[in-house]
Amino acid sequence: MTQNLTKETFLTKVFNYEVNKDWKFEGDKPCIIDFYADWCGPCKIVSPILEELSEEYKGKIDFYKVDTESEGELAAIFGIRSIPSLLFVPKEGVPRMAVGALPKESLISAFKEVLGVEKNDDKKN
């Protein structure tokens, strides 16, 4: 399930940019942050995919959303000029931004490559 972030929750769950100049992730597991707006068509395409993935990766990745209309400061800090913009935040290392409505397969690849997280596989060999 995706959680909406405000500036206050962002500072405690992702990155406290008011205290740290250099990136210091505050979370306990990798996360993805969807910068969106309610009026954005491509954002409406990505949203149900992220909800579905949040169930498939439950306990492995935190899924967050930032409404760029109400959280302009967060959007400005990350230089959001186009939405949707997706920030992939690994537990260790630097986050990476992707812009546009990515298909599910691309998101799964990014989870593996950027976040180092693979999906639970229910099949037994």
Strands ordered across the widest β-sheet:
1-3-2-4-5
Give the full name of the CATH homologous superfamily.
Glutaredoxin
Number of strands: 5
CATH fold descriptor: Glutaredoxin
- Percent in helix: 25-40%
Tally of discrete structural domains? 1
Instruction: Look at the structure and give the mean pLDDT.
Output: 92
Order of helices and strands: EHEHEHEEH
Spans with pLDDT under 50 lasting ≥5 residues? none
Give the overall form: globular
Strand % is 15-25%
So how many helices?
4
First-last Cα distance: 30 Å
Give me the secondary-structure category: alpha/beta
**What is the CATH class name?**
Alpha Beta
Summarize it.
The mean pLDDT is 92. The chain has a five-stranded mixed beta sheet with strand order 1-3-2-4-5.
Structural notes for this entry:
The protein is of the alpha/beta class and 125 residues long. The protein has one domain: Glutaredoxin. It is 31% helix and 18% strand. The protein contains 4 helices and 5 strands. It has helices at 7-13, 41-56, 72-77, 104-113, and strands spanning 3-4, 31-36, 62-67, 85-89, 96-99. It has a 5-stranded mixed sheet with strand order 1-3-2-4-5. The longest helix is centred in the middle third of the chain and has 16 residues, at 41-56.
Keywords:
125 residues; alpha/beta; Glutaredoxin; five-stranded mixed beta sheet; 4 helices; 31% helix; 18% strand
List the helices and strands and how they pair.
Blueprint: E1 3-4, H1 7-13, E2 31-36, H2 41-56, E3 62-67, H3 72-77, E4 85-89, E5 96-99, H4 104-113
Parallel strand pairs: 1-3, 2-3
Antiparallel strand pairs: 2-4, 4-5
